[in-house]
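re: that complex we talked abt at group meeting.

here r the seqs, copy pasted straight from the sheet so there may be weird spacing, ignore it
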Amino acid sequence: MLLAEVVDTSEAVTATRSRLAKRAAIAECLRRGAAEAASPSADTGPDATGADELEIAVAYLSGELRQRRTGLGWATLRDLPPPAASPTLTLHDVDAALAALSRLAGAGSEAARAAATSALFAAATRREQVFLRALIIGELRQGALDSVVVDAVAEAADLPADAVRRAVMLRGATGPVASAALLSPDPLAALAGFSLEVGRPVRPMLAQSAPDVAAALDKLPSGGAPGTGGACVDVKLDGIRIQVHRADDDVRVFTRSLDDITRRVPEIVAAVRDLPEARLVLDGEAIVLGPDGAPRPFQETASRSATHEARGGADDGAAGVTTDGPGAEPAPELESVTLTPFFFDVLHAGGHDLIDTPLRDRLAVLDRIGGRHAVRRLMEPGTGPEPDAADAASGTTTTAVVGPGADEGSADATTHDTTALFTEFFEQAVREGQEGVVVKSLDSLYAAGRRGAGWIKVKPRKTLDLVVLAVEWGSGRRQGKLSNIHLGARRPNPDGTDGFVMLGKTFKGMTDRMLEWQTERFLALETSREGHVVHVRPEQVVEIAFDGLQRSTRYPGGLALRFARVLRYRDDKRASEADTIDTVRSLAG
Ligand SMILES: Nc1ncnc2c1ncn2[C@@H]1O[C@H](COP(=O)(O)OP(=O)(O)OP(=O)(O)O)[C@@H](O)[C@H]1O
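got the structure back, here u go
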């Protein structure tokens, strides 16, 4: 398939604000790609190159490269060679050229990179050059586009969108699902064949939020058949999300964004090897504990998560953490603190997939396996196993089962008790220095890749994940550093793209290391300058703590943050996942 066809489609997608029209344009492109892959000129049935090109098309239409990093950025792509007169580049040509670029390292690699980049761009027409540059530096990356592409796969293959979406969540990628949907003789069966595979990460379930425990309990979907229903509350640990896969001694650790960080976290690997089950998929959080067992501040955990530190230099187009390649060694400074894994869910144990099993049963398995690595939790009265059984099963006091059975007292009393008990649990967690709690429905299934209604988080601290829109040069001690950041909340447009609404600025909470890092990072994202203000592409998500919201005539949303301060940069979230202006308004009351 020619790159030009994807460029045409991408232009058509950008030109319309209608989600349906975007979906139709992408579906049409995928149909053509599928027809080409299955064309009679290919020997028998779909040919491998065609299937692979379909996967490349899906990636490019989603605004993604297949390579994690190319070593190319805005600066290296500023001056391009004269364009080719007519389109000849295939998707394969481009993917192969970028794969070769991503492997360049060591002495002489800079010159080789410049030569290879120039050769690739010289083979591209003007429109292809513009597209490729935007693709490589991440300008086309739009989380909202992912879901349009998934829907387009369903439309092109004439399959239910739910079946495609589920396969994508379980496979952790859209490309292979698109090939199966569009090229296999029995697409529905092929989609059903995507199941959890030990060793391959699935998109993690996400939580909704509520201002307090009572609101969280209200928000949970109520139970179904008699004998079901019920809730539990977990401590919410403020660490790094981990998904751990174990097949005997082979243990792999993945982040929230499905990056493989196994080599950086040998202590997690060791802890999981000690668990009494040889085939496992566990979901949890890794944190640094102090000698007293209390959680250390997030910054210490972050020093091991190697997220923003792991990014390359300013001229690096790749997003997020690096994936451990063969031979990658942990950087020495990252080993100075020890992570302890805590698990709050289990997706597979001993040959059984548990994704479609209710939480109450998954927790019973977790308590049997997790031991002291299970997250502390409180069951709603009357919903858990008998206290003795639970103690015996967990072997520890990490699982507290308290209160009278559900058959004692009225339903109202039970609801009241639950709210009071869960609130007490929340307050204790916060006193201990935990981030908050997550209230969960015991009926809920594991909603891979979705912000499921079955998990509701409650945090005492007011925080928002906002996007940096611009940054100002510092003065005094911060001379030469990009310091004061302009913060924007997301405003989704009807066509699925995002705009941003500025809510304020802050230069508080930044460590020296952060200042170093952000100066480099924001220069790489620079789009223009106005006096001491550097405008940047709205891509970097930052977690901000604030004391409240006040009315403002200065900012376009009519609201401003009070005492905003930086907690951390979030490289595990894209701008399309940042908090929206509607969420901010709901916090303002
Ligand atoms: N016991 C727990 N159950 C579920 N999630 C937990 C728990 N403890 C900590 N977490 C963390 O809380 C997150 C749930 O919130 P959400 O899905 O909204 O992700 P997030 O946007 O990264 O949230 P946050 O910034 O609040 O951590 C999970 O991603 C996980 O990392």
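couple things i noticed - The mean pLDDT is 85. Residues 203 and 449 are 4 Å apart (CA to CA).
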